[in-house]
Protein 1
Amino acid sequence: MPRTTRPRRSAAAILVTAVVTSVLALGASAAHAQTFTSPATGSHDVGGAILSTYRALGGPAGKLGYPVTDQACGLPGGGCYLHFQGGSVYTSPGYGSHAVSGRIRDAWAASGWERGPLGYPVEGARSVPGGQAQRFQGGLLTLDQGSGQVRRS
């Protein structure tokens, strides 16, 4: 019985298959990424809902500055994050994409980020009398500008 052989694929065909598989595995948003580069932070890709939030906040010229990490996904509940010079942007299904920065970010990090009791951010920071507040799945963090203290409610 003659042995049948599979046709050999070219290196280009293998590369295209790998790229398509990667895009499908990461989701359509990964196909719509933009690379941001600075001498201080290097080059990092920003994509999907995080890119939309980053652009809305002014991109590299805004309060977040340049990205300092690559975008990471696979967090609980399908979330993703990316850290920037001036804060972080987290996205999660059902809660959207929100920036977290300053002392509110520090307090959230100390509580365990998205894995802690506060969970994911559900809105961006907003001004309140005497400071700022940001709502998370598990509560509200409020920064008192006068004292610099952040309290959870």
Protein 2
Amino acid sequence: MNYKISKSEVKDKLNSFQDLFRESGYKITPQREEIYKVLLESSSHPSVDMIFEKVKRKFPSISLDTVYRNVESLEKMNLVNRICGMEGKNHFEANITPHHHFICSNCQTIYDFTYEKANTEKIHLPVEALNIGNVESTHLLVKGICKKCKPSK
């Protein structure tokens, strides 16, 4: 399962984004909106470099630093999630619904999957984690070789 939303859902989320940013006192810029739109329309999990390349087509003078700062502000507003990729780069997604990730250690593709038992009420957490503090959510990150890289025999 990879995240894909319709054009009308993108429009609705962009409207909500504008309202949220106005209420929070953030300035709404065309560049910030385009960065969020790129993430909303992406069915992959792009890195900041990939987001930068797409946004640069519409805004040729945008800097990589601007994209970094805007993605971080979107993350702080809980509009995007960060995923640590195999190659050490952070990847981002606008899919903020509860789900988990499988990362192929060969091609570095990040796949989404759901697993309802992996929440704080149903999964057996180690005592060591519970002793650290109050667990509010869990996220599974599974690494392995995907079927595209290692076809079944």
Protein 3
Amino acid sequence: MRTVLIESPLQHGTEHEAANLAYLDACIADCFARSEAPYCSHKLYPGVLDDKDPHERLLGMSAGWAIGERLDGWIFYLDRGVSGGMLGGLRHVLALHEDLPAKWRRIVFRALGSSSPGVHSGLPAGVMFTSAAIERFPSLDAAIREVCPEFIR
């Protein structure tokens, strides 16, 4: 099984939390259906850490990212948009000390209900995202433009 970290919105303590947790459960099931072994810190840590306390929120995200560095991939589920925590995860994986093609092979952008593996690093080195790939996931557009505009072709 390929080991993966799931990135999806949580918005702990808001009116969106319950729907986002149900969505996370669906993301976990999607990973299992693809023979992936998922890990998601935002399912585990909010019961122990206070997501509204900036220090504890960063502690939980950092712990999740530390585990994510040891996994085979990072899956960004985009049906419910891109949260601040997801942007932090994207920034983190981009900062890892790997060559860019290897880094992008680890990142997958996915939507539920799609049998496709997602948009990821099947692109030539130096061309990380095409306009067509970004159009498939409108919520990703602003996030990619903010975090890594130099990779859009």
